[in-house]
Amino acid sequence: MSLFIYGTATNTGKNFFTHQDRLDFFLENHPANIWVVGNNEKGAVWFASKGGITKTKEEAQALVNAEVTAAQETWDAGTDVEKERFRRPSNIVLP
Amino acid sequence: MSTYKDLVGKYVRSVSSDPTAAYAEGEIWYNTTSNTFKTAVSVFAWSSGGAYPVAIQSGAGFGTQTAAVGAGGTPPGNVGLKTFEYNGSSWTAVNNMSRTPTGSPYLSAYTSGSGTLTAGWAAGGGYPTAVNNVENYDGTTWTASAVLPATRGGGNSSGPQTAGLYFAGTTGSPPRGVLATTYEYDGEGWTAGGDLNTARTNAGSTGPTGSQTAALSFAGNTPGFTNKTEEYNGSSWTEVNAFPDSRSYVGYAGSQTDAIGFSGYNGPALTTTKSYDGTNWSSAPSLSTGRLLYHTNAGTASAAVVFGGEGTTVLTNTEEFSGTSTIQTVTTS
């Protein structure tokens, strides 16, 4: 059994994840609405209750890469002023 | 050898059922039903809050977790001089900041704020050339106040409206030299304070919970990443134990003796949180979303709120840091 559940879900704001959720399971949010959720019973129930769409790790990483690459290309094409205002987005490797 | 009674002032009591966790925090008792020693401790975590109404990279954040203010910032098309108040659940649009000329798109960029929802203030900012604007907020209206002695961007505002500090930052005009200066604010005017030992910008601080005689500055850009921490006593800054890693664009909340620093940047956008007890830094629970922060945070070390910031894109999501009391069994392993 893998350590994490990977998938997409939309953060709806207050109580999308609670204090107790954070104590019950691992949770990370990444670009492209990717969530990495600890693969225990409570994590699985939370992800399902949020309408999460499960992805493989490779699919999730590809979605993150696509958004990061697009943001990097936008940054690279920007003016010096724009480059001063924003940091070039870093590559992200999902756990 | 000290006993529990010496330290706490009472004996370890024996009870058949556990007391309410919130009222027993820090106490140890013996549960005669489970035949175990137990204690109640605060367990902290970040949870999701109501999303900021627009994506915001920089802006003034101040107040508390349940009475916070977000004002101005960038990107200008999103935020401009807009102000929003947070009630612990959702954000509501209120009156705009009063800076002029109102058509200047970056007038409130990289500003910082402090104080409370009904007695707040915001200082500096502006892009590409910094401004010296200062405004006070009374919970309804922003009013122009005495300007900073010099133009500043990227510095920290800390403390209440009538006893605040503005320190560090940059000259705000290219080439942007990092600064060590401190200015003290009484709500109507400014006087010079002691200089930081390490000039820096994009640093963490004590924010609204700091005071004019007990402030904190940590991490930031010098212009490289730094982990240096300094404490202010009302006249001078003293270097103390360093932040556990070097980072900039770090979020912050709390006082000189009970603070947290979180998120930021030293390559990737960070999620990690560190807490400070007035002497040492230690690890605390992480946010869910990594982000670079430009002062869009508020609250205390035990009840903080962060909104927006810069990830791969400019963000709207809010996270809240808080503790709940839980009962744990004491073991010797």
Fold and architecture overview:
The complex is a heterodimer of chains A (95) and B (333). A 4-stranded antiparallel sheet of chain A has the order 2-3-1-4, with helices on both faces. Chain A is built from 4 helices and 4 strands. Chain A has helices at 19-24, 41-49, 57-76, 80-85; strands spanning 4-8, 27-30, 34-38, 53-55. Chain A has one domain (4-85). Helix content of chain A is 43%, strand content 18%. The radius of gyration of chain A is 16 Å and the shape is elongated. Chain B is built from 1 helix and 26 strands. Chain B has one helix at residues 4-8; strands at 13-15, 28-31, 36-49, 58-64, 67-74, 83-86, 91-94, 112-115, 120-123, 134-137, 142-144, 156-158, 164-167, 182-185, 190-192, 204-205, 215-218, 229-232, 237-240, 251-255, 258-262, 273-276, 281-284, 297-299, 303-307, 318-329. Chain B has a 6-stranded mixed sheet, with no helix packed on it. In chain B, strands 4-5-6-7 form a 4-stranded antiparallel sheet, with no helix packed on it. The relative contact order of chain B is 0.16. The mean pLDDT of chain B is 94. The chains are: A alpha+beta (95), B mainly beta (333). Chains A and B meet through helix 1, strand 2, helix 3 and helix 4 of A and strand 3 and strand 26 of B.
Structural key phrases:
heterodimer, A: 95 residues, alpha+beta, four-stranded antiparallel beta sheet, 4 helices, 4 strands, B: 333 residues, mainly beta, Neuraminidase, 2 domains, six-stranded mixed beta sheet, 1 helix, 2% helix, globular
